[in-house]
Amino acid sequence: xxxxxxxxxxxxxxxxxxxxxxxxxxxxxxxxxxxxxxxxxxxxxxxxxxxxxxxxxxxxxxxxxxxxxxxxxxxxxxxxxxxxxxxxxxxxxxxxxxxxxxxxxxxxxxxxxxxxxxxxxxxxxxxxxxxxxxx
Length: 135
Description:
Region (Disordered): 77-98
GO molecular function: ATP binding
Strand content: 25-35%
Keywords: ATP-binding, Kinase, Nucleotide-binding, Serine/threonine-protein kinase, Transferase
InterPro entries: Anti-sigma-factor_SerPK, HATPase_C_sf, HATPase_dom
Protein name: ATP-binding protein
Low-confidence stretches: 131-135
């Protein structure tokens, strides 16, 4: 994607062969610092879970976007697979399958859309005021 980010949108390309989770968490903290620690932590958790899934199931090497409208944050993570994300059962005894469950619980909504290049973007909307129960 060569498009410039829209106003209020922040983009981070991820060419690394492994998910740069610390880099992404720091980037989110810097871009959303005015939301407060608890709200930023909710966005960080959702973003790193979506990103981990992109690397584990979507071929890695993607792009993450944050779009902000007030306290509502849209997180989108691109990957190279057209396969839809699958919501696990969240069983704490399972070694996998809890990432989207966490994203589902912290998000007002989430889903995916196919991209023209054959991959997909998985997205989640986090309502910053609801992330901590604060108004």
